[in-house]
Amino acid sequence: MPGQVLPRRFYARPTIEVARDLLGKYLCHGPHAGRIVEVEAYLPHVDEAAHSFRGRTARTKVIFGPPGHAYVYFIYGIHCCMNVVVEKDGVPGCVLIRGVDGFGDGPGKLTRSMGITLEHYGADLTRGALVIRDGPKPPHIVTTPRIGIRRSVELPLRFVLADS
DNA sequence: ATACGGATACGG
DNA sequence: CGTATCCGTATT
User: By C-alpha distance, which of A49, A24, A51 is closest to A36?
Assistant: First the structure.
C-alpha cells in the first residue's frame, strides 16, 4: 500500500498545506508502517504554542533548518513526540504526528510503539530507516483546535481523517 | 482530577 | 543556580 518516499519538495511548502497533505501518507520505520490519521500544525512566527516561537535554541534548531527532517523532543519525563520539519530552509514550521493507524492514538504512544526515539532527532525523512511514503488521497478531513496546549488554543490547526 | 517524570527556558 | 512550564498517558 505505501508508495514512493515523499521528495523534499513535498515538505518545502506552507505548514498547513503540508499538515493536511500528510494525512493518508505512511509513516515507516524499519518494518513498521502505518497510515497517518491525525496531525497538528505549528506555524512559523505567529504561533505561541510552537516551540520555535521563542527562537532558535539547541532543541529547536532543526525546525529552522531544511524541510523533510524529524524534530523529536522529550516531554513530561516520559514521552517522545515526533514532528516533521516543513517550510523552506530558515522558516520554522513543523507538523506534529499525533496518530498512526495500528500504532495507537497520541503522539507519545505511536513513537513508543514504532520505536522512534531522540536518536531520530534531525533524521532525514527522504532516505534511511525513518521515512514517509505516499498513499491514496483520503476522502475527508476534520479540522479542530489543538490538544494539550495553553497558548494559541483557539487556532484550528488539528487535522484528523474522518474515517478514523 | 491527578500522579508521574525529566528536559528546557528563563529569571536572578 | 532555582523553578515554572511543557505539543502526554494511565489511573482514580
Answer: A24
pLDDT of residue A162: 87
- What is the pTM for the complete model shown? 0.96
Domain CATH number, residue A22: 3.10.300.10
Q: Which nucleotide's C1' atom has the smallest distance to the CA of A61? A: B8
Residue A43 lies in a domain: yes
Segments of chain A scoring below 70 in pLDDT: none
Provide, in whole angstroms, the distance separating residue A147's CA from nucleotide C8's C1'.
10
Helices (H), A2-146: 8-11, 15-22, 107-114
With respect to residue A63, please indicate whether it lies within any of the assigned structural domains: yes
Instruction: Please give the tally of structural domains in chain A.
Output: 1
Q: Measured CA to C1', what is the nucleotide nearest A51?
A: C7
Task: Give a yes or no: residue A72 inside a domain.
Answer: yes
Task: Give the position of cell 533524521.
Answer: A123
